[in-house]
Specification:
alpha/beta, Undecaprenyl pyrophosphate synthetase, 6-stranded parallel beta sheet
Length: about 240
């Protein structure tokens, strides 16, 4: 069942769906003379704190950009360590997800991962499917361009099968063919690490999202920084292309 809704003009400005580009793990480690993977491990701790904050503040959807399609270009040993960390999280955090009523979703081209990791992803999603609290949406081997191309492929397939007519294809219909089709619209995008770009993240979905950039490296992101981002969001007058 879709939970997509639209804002009314008078709706209270609270971000329901927050997406975060978690940048700065490697630089955090290098600044301390440590190997990059230790930065990723500290970044995992920051993820747990961020999820806790989202729960406490009744955020409905939290999307985390954990591994992009472009990250495949990183050194092989770093990629292996990242995927091992992802597998460790899936193996060890399921009971906590269920305890706090968190529904886990993973979006991206999962065929890149080995069979073991794919199986753990599938099982984690299945085991948390009926949880109706926070939706924790993990973007893994994800790219905005990939998402759009895959959506086009699915639309073309349905057109060829006679399920869909070309004249029916509107923005709302197209959105239903993307990996985020059953999620609320993204209200706020946070990027840590000082860079001010989107990096191929949710390109279609964040057309009217508010953008918040901070110099704080991801392992140092905490409740104080999260509050700053939400406070910034609350000051924005969202027109969605209109003039109201």
């Amino acid at each position: 069942m879709s939970i997509i809704k639209e804002y009314s003009k008078n709706e209270k400005k609270i971000p329901r769906h927050i997406a975060i580009i978690m940048d700065g793990n490697g630089r955090w480690a290098q600044k301390r003379g440590k190997i990059r993977i230790l930065g990723h491990k500290e970044g995992f701790k920051a993820v747990k704190k961020t999820v806790k904050f989202a729960l406490q503040n009744k955020i409905k959807v939290l999307t985390l950009y954990t591994f992009s399609t472009e990250n495949q270009k990183r050194p092989k040993l770093e990629i292996i360590a990242l995927l091992e960390l992802f597998l460790f999280a899936l193996k060890n955090e399921i009971q906590h997800l269920n305890k706090y009523n968190i529904c886990l979703k993973v979006i991206g081209d999962l065929t890149y991962f080995d069979k073991e990791l794919q199986l753990y992803i599938y099982n984690a999603e299945r085991m948390t499917l009926n949880n109706n609290g926070l939706i924790l949406n993990i973007a893994a081997n994800y790219g905005g361009k990939w998402d759009i191309v895959e959506g086009v492929k699915k639309i073309l397939s349905d057109v060829q099968k006679g399920i869909l007519c070309i004249s029916q294809i509107k923005e709302e219909i197209f959105s239903q063919y993307l990996s985020t089709n059953n999620l609320l619209p993204v209200d706020l995008v946070i990027r840590t690490g000082g860079e001010k770009r989107i990096s191929n993240f949710l390109l279609w979905q964040i057309a009217y999202s508010e953008l918040y950039f901070t110099d704080v490296l991801w392992p140092d992101f905490n409740a104080f920084e999260f509050k700053n981002a939400i406070n910034y969001f609350s000051t924005r007058k969202r027109r969605f292309g209109g003039n109201f």
